[in-house]
């Protein structure tokens, strides 16, 4: 990456402060851009879901991995639950979605409770042998008594797809029969998954992030306290593909000790550590055994650290400096936090990040763990909260005595309750992934880059004024 006219400013920058200048390009199509990472995590798109309890759970993990990304299960989740989640993710089909299944004698009320768990808002009704006998959507349940049985409301005109059909073939069947989605069955007619028309299209564009056995990948986080080596080994035995050692201030001695302990335990998956924002932090954590550095103090949407402490660093400069140092040492960085638009992802990658972590933006999707709630204005939302908020600290310390809990409760650097509204046009995390990847692919072609290494190499970045930034915003309602 080069600054325009080689003018590197003497102050720090964040994503809004910078822009990329188009370069002469030989990349003919946005589909010719390869978004896979080279940091050893096996992703095919450079997106990682942040280790936040309100955001990263099993549904998020399977959905993201199916499209080539990775999710980090947070350190606040008990190890035995993380093991169960990892096993579940690995048992999911790498191409077909996991359907909601109900039986014909269950009720409309049962279906309505489960439908918001899926962006495609449908359930498959199956018989005792798990063969599809009907489909139920919200419109089937409209104006019907909630205790009605599904056999009385379901659509029985079910088109099924066989599991040997390729995604293009599945798309054509769905388009030809004017169906939005269909159950996928094996040669005995038993349900193995679900395919939507958009999902079939996506399967021709994305490749799942899979391990050597073809199973979906998942990452998990641990903190720096307790027996970190034992925790790391337990997670690896559970099948976790990438380990994140995470604390607010990553450049601290306890982190160095934790990393040494993890490395001493012979952990052979990529180890990510953070958070840091400067080259000396990168050096020390690489020296202690980190393969990847997590970069960002204070940019997160749920984060009050900069307001509470004055500590942090504008994220673009933090990523740039850490990525330069990591590359010098043969390591990588993940840009963590502060992403609000696809452009922020493109700029983080231009600065040299191998992945971009997203938290709050993905909280407002069907795949985040929380229940779908509806505000008085009818807008759907999910609740989110920061991992250093009073709410998260209270959860994390629930096993401590009252005195210790009270002491720890004094330190709060995050928001305990926020509403992340679902975008009615993009209510699923895959809709947001589509938007982000389209933006990043397009950014690569403007830069003349076939892949992310070339994007970083060729990016020409200028510094803009606040009015330069606002000029780039669309004005859908005139001015
Ligand atoms: N990227 C960011 O800007 C930030 C991210 N977070 C996220 O919140 C989650 C919780 O992290 P964390 O608060 O570290 O909690 P942890 O549970 O990981 O514990 C932090 C430990 O480090 C000690 N510590 C010393 N100095 C600090 C400090 N300045 N901030 C926090 N702990 C300190 C604490 O001891 P004692 O309590 O005695 O001081 C405690 O033992 C993580 O996921 C983290 O990434 C949190 C804040 C900022
Ligand atoms: N200072 C705090 N930082 C937090 C907290 N919870 C999460 N985080 C950090 O934010 C990113 C995600 O950023 P986002 O803008 O995409 O939401 C996450 O990975 C953490 O590093 C918190 O309570 N306080
Ligand atoms: K912030």
Automatic annotation (TrEMBL):
Catalytic activity: IMP + NH4(+) + NADP(+) = GMP + NADPH + 2 H(+)
PROSITE patterns, sorted: CBS
Gene Ontology biological process: IMP salvage; purine ribonucleoside salvage
A Pfam family of this chain: CBS
Lineage top rank: taxon: Bacteria
Listed HAMAP family: GMPR_GuaB1 (MF_02250)
The family this protein is said to belong to: Belongs to the IMPDH/GMPR family. GuaB1 subfamily.
Protein's name according to its UniProt entry: GMP reductase
Taxonomic lineage of the native organism: Bacteria, Bacillati, Actinomycetota, Actinomycetes, Propionibacteriales
